[in-house]
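Hi D.,

Good news: the full-assembly prediction came through. Inputs first.
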Amino acid sequence: MAYVATRGGERAIEQAERLYRAALGPITPERVAGIRDGMPLLIDRVMGEASLYAPDLAALALAQTGGDLYEAVMLLRAWRTTQPRLAIAQPIQTGEGLTHRRVSAAFKDIPGGQILGPTLDYSHRMLATAVLSGATVTPRPVEPAARPAPASPPPLADWQRAQGLLAPLNAPEIAPDAIPDVTREPLLFPASRAHTLQSLARADTGGMLALGYSAMRGYGQAHPTVNELRLTEAPLRVTHPCGTIFSAGRIRVGQAEVVNAKGAQLKLGFCASFGWNEVKTIAGATLDLNSPNAAPKSPTNPEFFLYHTEPVEASGFCIHFKLPHYVTFQSALDNLRGAARQKAEPGVAPELEPAE
Amino acid sequence: MTLAALTRKRADHSYGFLDASAKRELRRAMVKAVAVPGCQIPYASREVPMARGWGTGGLQVTLTLVNPRSCVKVIDQGADDSVNAASIRRFVTRVSGAAGTCDTTAATLIQSRHRIPEEVLRADQMLVLQVPNPEPLRPVEPDMSRARQMHADADYARLWLILYEQVVRAGRIMQGAGYPALVNGRHVMTPSPIPRWDLPKLHMAEHLTILSAGREKRLYAVPPHTTVEPLVFDDIPFRVEDHAVLTCGRSGLRGYFMNELPQADGGVMHEVSDSELGIKAIRAAEGSGPAPAPTWYRAGEFRRA
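Then the structure:
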């Protein structure tokens, strides 16, 4: 009677949840603040996948779920979906915003220069075990450069277009209201570019890495070269009901462009997301780059990667297999036994008899 | 008249959790689905405070249809008291103020995973089925764009082909639950993973059934008095599970869909899958409750009322 244990109704559910919450202990404003300030990149990742830019709420979601990323994203999305949509912000242009980091692997130097910014790329990954014996690791102070980097270097793609290396931009001008919203409309295939980029922006980081990596390793058509990777604080400009455009603050945005240099012209893949998440945007841009003419059931086909990197859907479906399936399983067993009987006595119509 | 009298206090969530725009979208999708029986209608599918794949599609339909006068029953695998059913019922009643019930005959709105109750549903009842994979063509065409084209062309040849291959390989059709069925002579649907036992209950039924897949963002409907015909060959009739002669070890009921419970001594016990029907039968036998309402099956035979 295996499933009797998972029955028992409301009281058992209540106690199971209490058990989980007891292990986490009390959630205090201090704990939430500690998560928010101490783990900014985790906050960025949750905000990106939840498609809600709210560091305090993201920290709260992480505190409430004990750091289970998929649970935290689900919590935040369920909250955001009921909130009213007050305004539609103006698009953020690549060349604007306060640029903290901007690198290109395509050229040694680019107009506006390479800006390394904050990164662990060249660090030695050694665990600071001394902290566990009581020491405090205090970061060494940053020494300002003699000459400040430009705050908003121009997009490298502009220079490439002027050189004829990239096809000219032919994106039609779309009114903000006419841009579809993937959170309020179903994703249909073939997906529009707006839907593709929106879905990639809130896709699962790990899932995008797995599929993007498969393309990088040879299951795609193109080798990505990072054309430009940018981490910025971008202005959020919205239109006031009286018509004036004002800045409602800044958000951290990460974006990546990758190019393929095989044909007559460069081909460009793009991905952007809330927060600074370089792995996600490079993997996403690689998927985007590989998607035109991808084989129908390949990982770089938009239908394949957009469905399978949706974190709330994928994780939810995966854990639903914990729910009892005895009705469907019973139906399958019935077929199995019937087929076995038929095989044992071919030609004899299976009788109605109780399963043993 | 003051301004305060015209306003409402701000609440964290709308009535029934979903906001008005989400409900409006769902209502429009449901109207379309009723108008074109069995046709999958896309909808945005909002995130709800439950994991995807746990009945979020059914939940969104239920939250849209529920009102304070509703009486809600939730079934998971035939049982009202399994963890997910209890959790969904608790959530729906909490955000809607509707009453909850386990009694099939008392319910006006029934959300179910994998079972249609054994007691016959009436015209004033609505059944909402949670669907994991709404696409009957998924096994033969995983590409959604092509599958939609095949539905448009009523091109179900490859579906017939897999059924035929099953007959050749196993000697019988091996489709378990979720048996593909032609609705209103036009669209083939997968009737959610209900056992074959439950499929005849949809054919020319009195009640409205809405099938909704939250993760896959599609819903479809079987309106009342609509034909639902399982795909079968003329010489190999449709067969429900061989449960007609099984007896429930708890209630003594016979001729219903059963759960098989392996016993420690190597044997097997059966219990009726519709747990509330079993409870009703036990209570009626003890003289402490009414007898179950008429059921679709009698003595293991499907009979139209």
